[in-house]
Structure formats: structure tokens, C-alpha cells
């Protein structure tokens, strides 16, 4: 799923400064699962903003709402009758949310209330780690199910580099060297010789280097 | 055993301190309450294993929120006590009451009583 982080409160307060009616808008997708942008977090952020306003003796309402998703126009459309009533919408969905909202409601000021950080999964409750960089050509099966693109600091296809020491990456003793893990895992599976293959330079055109990506499914398109 | 503690402390009972929610704690401050404390069981004695530890972390979280709002983080606290310790309950209540007296009223205006 897409993982996000809350933005510092000061930053959000600055965004809504001088804007009377504010809507904090959550999303029931990824950001609900990673506890950063669901109904509960909408309640916490909106309450916090209301405390700040009351304390400062400022007027204005901070309202709460959560859409099924903010990455689908049909749900964004649900705000059609009310969007114009707000002086600011603070979206706590991933970065797609504020963009879809701004496109659909160009006269409303929309702000991103979270930072979208990476594609990953939960290691335990409250801990998430990056696992995929959406390179557009998945190869993890060649590397024991471990992604060298997202998890090697240099995205090396032929690792490890000389900086790998005692299982850790040279950038930090807190970061596992994924190439160490790949070699260990492949050896354990009796597939070590597969790592002798030298990978040619990866074609990054399927990734962001090819420019913004659009996926068209002719079978689904109407 | 009859023990005295300040009458303007409103007790809200929960099955376990772990049930306390960040949102509940914040709502109290939104309504202009001057302080909130969570009374949980002794650490290591939770019937649900880690409820009181989770409560403490939530209290710590709210402390940070209060701080970034320019409110004193001392307005919220976590205390651990055993249910067999009546005198300690009263002592904590008095202690916290004293602390809030010293801090003075919250700068957030009180909500109108319904
Ligand atoms: S190889 Fe590419 S698509 Fe597969 S997990 Fe890694 S970054 Fe994601
Ligand atoms: S030490 Fe390992 S993870 Fe770090 S850059 Fe080198 S190969 Fe990649």
C-alpha cells in the first residue's frame, strides 16, 4: 500500500491561516490502513485544529469527512454540492487526493495534509517499510523475492557493492544490505549460481524516467 | 474506607486504560477542560497484557500535540496504580488537581454545557 506520514501541525495551521471554513478530508484506502488518513485521523487532526482555533480566539468551523477513496473521480464527485462552501480542504489522502480535488474543484483551495512517502508494507503494528519503487518491470523472483531496486540504496542489479559490511548497508548501520539478504536467501534455497548472471543495465523507461505514466486498459475503458 | 479527593475531578470509567483513545483525550481539551489524567493498572499487571503501556504511549502522543499547540504538556498525565490502592488514587487525584491549579485554566474557552 501507499504509506504516508502526518505533516507537522505548524505547517497545516499555516495552510489554513485566515481561511474560515475548513474541511479535513480522509480516505478509506491505503492511508486508513497505515493509520495516517482515515476517519480516525480525520477526527484527531480536525479536533487538534479546532483546539488551536479556539485557543487563538479565531472564528471558523473545521469539519470532518472521509471518502471511500480520493483516487477515483466518482467519490470526489460526492463533494459536488458542498465543496464550494469551504475556504480550504485539507486532504489527508496520498498525493493523488489533493490533485484530484483541485482538478475537480478549481475554485477551492486544497492542501495536502500528509506527506506521501513510499510503497511498502507493515513489518509490525506501527512500523512500515519500503518494498517497491514501481519500476514498471518486476524482477523480484530472480532475487529470492527481495527487491534490489527499492531496498538497495543504490538500486544495484548486480550487488552487493563494496560498502556491504556484516549484513548492513554502508549508508547506515540501521539499514540492512538487501544484497546480503539476497545472497543468503538464494544460497539457502540452493539457487546461488543464478546470481552469477550479470544483469544488463535496467531499462528505466518503464519507470519514472520514461516520464509520467498512464495505464490504459482497452478491455475496461468505456 | 472514605477518602477525599477534589470533587471537580470527573471520573470516566473504562474497562481498561488501553481503551482510552487519543481522540477522547483531545476532545476533552477541545471542550476547554483544564487537564486530563489516565489512571491505569501497574505496569506488568494489565489483564489485557499491554493496555496500560498503550495508554501511556497515547498520553505521550497527546503531550506532543499539546506542546505543538502551545499548551502545557503537563495538562495531561498517565499514572499507574493498583486497584487495591485507594489512598494512592486519592493522592494522585490531589496531586494532579494541585498541578492544574498551578497551571491555571486552559486558554481554550469552555464548551457550553449541554
Ligand atoms: S522490481 Fe520493480 S516492481 Fe518489483 S518490487 Fe522492485 S521496484 Fe517494485
Ligand atoms: S551496501 Fe548493500 S544495500 Fe547498500 S548500496 Fe551496497 S549493495 Fe546496496
Task: Give the overall average pLDDT of chain A.
Answer: 97
Order of helices and strands of chain B: HEHEH
CATH architecture of the largest domain in chain A: 3-Layer(aba) Sandwich
Note poorly predicted spans of chain B: none
| Cα separation of the termini of chain A | 27 Å
What order do the strands of the largest sheet of chain A run in, or round the barrel if closed? 3-2-4-5
Rg measurement of chain A, Å: 22 Å
Q: How many domains make up the 3D coordinates of chain B?
A: 1
Structurally, the number of domains of chain A stands at 2
The CATH topology of the largest domain in chain A: Rossmann fold
Mean pLDDT of chain B, rounded to whole units? 92
Percentage of residues in helical conformation of chain A: 25-40%
Outline of chain B, from the CA principal axes? globular
Number of strands of chain B: 2
Could you name the CATH class of the largest domain in chain A?
A: Alpha Beta
Shape descriptor of chain A reads: elongated
- Give unreliable regions of chain A as ranges: none
Structural class of chain A: alpha/beta
Radius of gyration of CA atoms of chain B, rounded to a whole number = 14 Å
Written overview of the protein:
The complex is a heterodimer of chains A (222) and B (114). Chain A folds into two domains: 2-117, Rossmann fold (3-Layer(aba) Sandwich), CATH 3.40.50; 135-204, no CATH class. Chain A contains seven helices and seven strands. Chain A has helices at residues 9-16, 30-33, 39-56, 73-76, 96-104, 148-151, 178-188, and strands at 2-6, 22-27, 62-67, 88-91, 110-112, 114-124, 127-132. A four-stranded parallel beta sheet of chain A has the order 3-2-4-5, with helices on both faces. A three-stranded antiparallel beta sheet of chain A has the order 1-6-7. Chain A starts with a strand and ends in a 34-residue tail after the last helix. The model of chain A has no long low-confidence stretch (mean pLDDT 97). Chain B has 114 residues and is mainly α. Chain B has one domain (17-103). Chain B contains three helices and two strands; from the N terminus they run αβαβα. In chain B, strands 1-2 form a two-stranded parallel sheet. In chain B, strand 1, helix 2 (51-68) and strand 2 form a beta-alpha-beta unit. The chains are: A alpha/beta (222), B mainly alpha (114). The A-B interface holds A 8-10, 40, 43-44, 47-48, 50-52, 54-55, 57 and B 22-23, 26-27, 29-30, 32, 65, 68-71, 107-109. The complex binds iron/sulfur cluster (2 copies). One iron/sulfur cluster binds at residues 152-154, 156, 159-161, 163-164, 169-170, 177-179 of chain A.
Amino acid at each position: 500500500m501507499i504509506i504516508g506520514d502526518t505533516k507537522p501541525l505548524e505547517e497545516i495551521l499555516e495552510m489554513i491561516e485566515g481561511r474560515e471554513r475548513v474541511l479535513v478530508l480522509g480516505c478509506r484506502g491505503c492511508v486508513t490502513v497505515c493509520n495516517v488518513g482515515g476517519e480516525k485521523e480525520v477526527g484527531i487532526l480536525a479536533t487538534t485544529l479546532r483546539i488551536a482555533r479556539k485557543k487563538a480566539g479565531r472564528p471558523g468551523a473545521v469539519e470532518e469527512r472521509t471518502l471511500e477513496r480520493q483516487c477515483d473521480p466518482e467519490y470526489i464527485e460526492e463533494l459536488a454540492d458542498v465543496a464550494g462552501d469551504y475556504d480550504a480542504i485539507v486532504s489527508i489522502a496520498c498525493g493523488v487526493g489533493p490533485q484530484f480535488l483541485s482538478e475537480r474543484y478549481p475554485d477551492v483551495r486544497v492542501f495536502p495534509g500528509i506527506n506521501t512517502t513510499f510503497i511498502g508494507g507493515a513489518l509490525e503494528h506501527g512500523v512500515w517499510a519500503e518494498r517497491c519503487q514501481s519500476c514498471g518491470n518486476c524482477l523480484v523472483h530472480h532475487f529470492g523475492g527481495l527487491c534490489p531496486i527499492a531496498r538497495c540504496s543504490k538500486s544495484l542489479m548486480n550487488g552487493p557493492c563494496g560498502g556491504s559490511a556484516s549484513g548492513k548497508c554502508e549508508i547506515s548501520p540501521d539499514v540492512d544490505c538487501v544484497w546480503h539478504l539476497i545472497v543468503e536467501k538464494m544460497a539457502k534455497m540452493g539457487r546461488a549460481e543464478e546470481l552469477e548472471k550479470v544483469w544488463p543495465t535496467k531499462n528505466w523507461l518503464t519507470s519514472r524516467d520514461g516520464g509520467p505514466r498512464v495505464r490504459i486498459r482497452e478491455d475496461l475503458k468505456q | 474506607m472514605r477518602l477525599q479527593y477534589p470533587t471537580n475531578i470527573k471520573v470516566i470509567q473504562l474497562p481498561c486504560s488501553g481503551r482510552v483513545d487519543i481522540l477522547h483525550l483531545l476532545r476533552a481539551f477541545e471542550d476547554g477542560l483544564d487537564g486530563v489524567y489516565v489512571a491505569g493498572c501497574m505496569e506488568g499487571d494489565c489483564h489485557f497484557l499491554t493496555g496500560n503501556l498503550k495508554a501511556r504511549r497515547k498520553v505521550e502522543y497527546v503531550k506532543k500535540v499539546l506542546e505543538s499547540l502551545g499548551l502545557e504538556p503537563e495538562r495531561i498525565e498517565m499514572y499507574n496504580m493498583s486497584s487495591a490502592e485507594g489512598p494512592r488514587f486519592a493522592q494522585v487525584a490531589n496531586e494532579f488537581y494541585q498541578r492544574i491549579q498551578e497551571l491555571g485554566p486552559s486558554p481554550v474557552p469552555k464548551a457550553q454545557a449541554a
